[in-house]
Design a protein that fits this description.
Blueprint lengths: L1 E5 L7 H9 L6 E6 L6 E8 L3 H11 L3 E2 L2 E2 L1 E4 L13
Antiparallel strand pairs: 1-3, 1-6, 2-3, 4-5
Length: 89
Amino acid sequence: MKLYVGNMAFSVTDSQLRTAFEAYGTVEDVAVISDRDTGRPKGFAFVTMPNAQEANAAIQGLNEKDLDGRNLRVNEAKPKAEMGSGGRY
């Protein structure tokens, strides 16, 4: 299950996030998202946990919990919306 982690302090690293989520189960992947132009963190990340039960436990345990001075927002990641053709004619 892929989880969205928002409201992160810009100082949070992949390894800090991995450690926090591993308290609830197996973590397959952690991706702290950075701006492609500046390289600075954008304040959110995605964490993939293969076991849905463990992922749900992580949501319950970490949502609204403080990490580096900010209360995380943790929920199941929503699929990326498809882009419409909508350009100008």
